[in-house]
Amino acid sequence: MLEQTVASVLNLQHTNMELEILIVTQNDHLDIGFPETPGTHVRVFQQPASLTISHLRNYGFSQSKGEYIAYLDADVALSENWLEAMVNLLQQDPGRVLVSAVQKNSEEAPVLEKIRTALSNADIDCELSFLPGRNLFMRRDTVDRVGGFPEHLTTCEDYYFTYRVSELGVMYYSSDADYVHLGEDKELKAMFDKEIWRGQSNLHSIKGRKIPLSEIPSFLVPMWILFFALAFVLSGLMGHLSLSVICLVFAFLPILAYSVRLYGVANREIEFTEIFKFYLVYFPARIIGTLVGLFKSIGAGS
Fold first, then answer.
1. Considering only CA atoms, which of 290, 294, 281 is closest in space to residue 112?
2. Residue 142's pLDDT is what?
3. What are phi and psi of 81, to 5 degrees?
4. What is the pTM for the complete model shown?
5. Which of 17, 35, 94, 101 has CA 20 to 30 A from 195's CA?
6. CA distances from 79 to 16, 27, 246, 299 (A)
7. How confident is the model at residue 76 (pLDDT cuts 50, 70, 90)?
8. Can you give the residue ranges of every domain in the chain?
9. What is the mean predicted confidence (pLDDT) over 163-169?
10. Alpha-carbon distance 59 to 53, whole Å?
11. What is the residue-wise DSSP string for the chain?
């Protein structure tokens, strides 16, 4: 996937622009050839496996020289017009400090990828307060002003970083260009494991920034489901069947609400049962990840 990512960067239209591609890897031996094309230079840097994604991104920035900076995940394929579109979007409006392209489904995308793409594109061609870190484009001084990525976070570093950037000006999510997420989860089991990992930094990511109202449900809903799921089990064990049924209904309400919303966002092009199944797996994984992160924090504090 890294080869495909670099290939898509080398294939970008970039009239009168010189590209500097910096790959920061934790692999012991990166046995891949990266052919350079006119106007592009590829450099590979090795970093210890113990360091966070934020450190890798900050290290790459420290080695770069460009006026514009693009942060890419190592599993995305950019459309050919991506670079020119991103530069134009920044130059169109002096108030814009960061721009990003929309996600596009791969050919013959499985339903889970279609769900993820629909979630990513719930709001497009508009200003947003945070963005995933798969493709972020900005001027160099923007990175300097926010101090780079938060190296104390294992995950959620992109949300922390982009929210800090949004305090400087407008972040714009545009359909003028697109990307395919090559590493998108194809099966629910892989998604479940990854969401546990992502959820571990949920609470850590709050520290040092304001929480927008739109983000509050992502913290409260998993706890709501956990509370009423436990209440369902306890009331059932105690023989309070009516209360048990009520608790079960309340536990499923957010899952149903999120499913109905996404069904509409996806223009009813994804089966409702598939969306409901997705959230039945997603929320338990986020609950487990959040609890793991909480216990790690308590252990580290003690």
1. 281
2. 97
3. -90, 10
4. 0.88
5. 101
6. 18, 27, 49, 45
7. very high
8. 2-184, 213-301
9. 94
10. 10
11. -HHHHHHHHHT---TT--EEEEEEE--S---------TTEEEEEEE--TTS-HHHHHHHHHHH---SEEEEE-TTEEE-TTHHHHHHHHHHH-TTEEEEEEEEEPPTT--HHHHHHHHHHTSS-SEE-S---TTEEEEEHHHHHHHTSS-TT-SS-HHHHHHHHHHTTSEEEEEEEEEEEETT---SHHHHHHHHHHHHTTTTGGGTTS---GGGHHHHHHHHHHHHHHHHHHHHHHTT-HHHHHHHHHHHHHHHHHHHHHHHHHTTT-S-HHHHHHHHHHHHHHHHHHHHHHHHHHHHHH-
Residue 299 has pLDDT above 60, yes or no: no
Residue with tokens 């571990």: 200
Say which residue, 5 or 301, is predicted with more confidence. Answer: 5
- The yes-or-no verdict on residue 237 having pLDDT over 90 is yes
Beta bridge partners of 162: none
- End-to-end CA separation in angstroms for the chain: 41
Q: What are phi and psi of 103, to 5 degrees?
A: -85, 145
Hey, what CATH class is 2-184 in? alpha beta
Amino acid 204: pLDDT = 65
Identify which has the larger pLDDT, 88 or 295: 88
- DSSP strand pairing (96-104 vs 170-181): parallel
* Amino acid, single-letter form, for residue 236: G
Answer for the pair 69, 108: CB distance below 8 angstroms, yes or no.
Answer: no
- What value does the CA radius of gyration of the chain take, rounded to a whole number of Å? 21
Q: From residue 48, give the alpha-carbon distance in Å to each of 59, 64, 254, 263, 294.
A: 12, 19, 41, 42, 26
Q: Hey, what are 163's tokens?
A: 């929210």
Position 251 scores a pLDDT of 97
CA 296 to mean position of chain CA atoms: 22
Of the candidates 75, 55, 67, 71, which has an alpha carbon nearest to the alpha carbon of residue 22?
A: 71
Over residues 163-178, the mean pLDDT reads: 96
Q: Tokens 């999510």 identify what position? A: 173
